[in-house]
Amino acid sequence: MILYLKVVEGFRLSEGKCKCIASTFVIIGIIQIILIGYLLIYPLIFTPFSNPNTTYGTLFISTPTRNYTPLNCDSIGLMLQPEGSGDILNITKIGLFHLQYHWSTNYGFFLSQDPKSYIIVYEGQEVKNPHSRGKIIYWAYDYRDIGRQKPSAVITVSIEDEYIQKPFIANESIINWTGLDIANLMERPKN
Asked: What count of other Cβ atoms lies within 10 Å of the Cβ of residue 11?
C-alpha cells in the first residue's frame, strides 16, 4: 500500500512537471511567433514612415461641383474630397493606421456631414476628419458676405497621424470668385 501511494504520488509530481514544461514550451512558442511576426510585418508597414526620404505620393483637393454660392438652395457648400496617388493614400484607404485629414482655410468655414445620419455640423476654419469616421467635408462662406468683395480663400488639406499630429503629405487649393458671390475651386495642376 505504501509503495502504491509513493508510485501514485511520484506520478502526480512528474505529471505536474510535464504540465509545467509543456506550458513553458507553449509560452516560448507564442513569444517566437510574435517576434517573427513583428520582424516580418513591421518593416513592411512602418518603413514608409521611418524613412525621411520617402515620397508619400501626391495629394489634391477635388470637388464634384466646381462652384458654390449660398444663393443656391440645393447645396450645403463646396464638397471637398482628397484625391491623389501613392503609398499614403493607399494606407489611408486600407485603414491600418489612425490617419486623419486635416483641413484648414483662411476664409469661410467648414461643415461636416455624417453619411449615415445626414446631420450637418459647423466645424469652423479648421477640421480634423479621421478617415475611420468618414465624414463628408464642405466649404462654405457666410451668407452675410453676399454682394461684398471677398478674398481668395486658400484651402489646405494634409494627411497626418491622429495621435502625433505629424503631417505626411499636404497640398492646397485656391478658391477664386466669379462675380462677387460664386466661389470656384481652382483646377488641380496637371502632371
From this structure: 10
**Tens digit of pLDDT for each residue in 45-84?**
554 444 444 556 778 888 888 889 988 878 889 999 888 7
pTM: 0.66
Element (H, E) at 174: strand 167-178
Q: Where are the domains of the chain?
A: 1-52, 58-185
User: Crossing angle for the helix pair 87-94 and 2-50, nearest 10 degrees?
Assistant: 140
Give the whole-angstrom CA distance, residue 90 versus residue 82: 12
At 15 the three-state DSSP class reads: helix
Alpha-carbon separation of residue 112 from 51, 70, 125 (angstroms): 34, 16, 12
Query: Which residue is it, cell 521611418?
Result: 50
Residue 157 contacts residue 59 (beta carbons within 8 Å) = yes
Question: pLDDT tens for residues 107-123?
Answer: 999 998 888 888 899 99
Of the options 2.60.40, 1.10.10, 2.30.30, 3.30.1490, the CATH number for the domain spanning 58-185: 2.60.40
Which residues have a Cβ under 8 Å from the Cβ of 141 and sit 6 or more positions away?
A: 70, 107, 108, 109, 150, 153, 183
| Beta strand ranges found along 51-119 (DSSP E) | 58-62, 67-68, 78-85, 99-105, 109-113
Specify the DSSP class assigned to residue 20. H
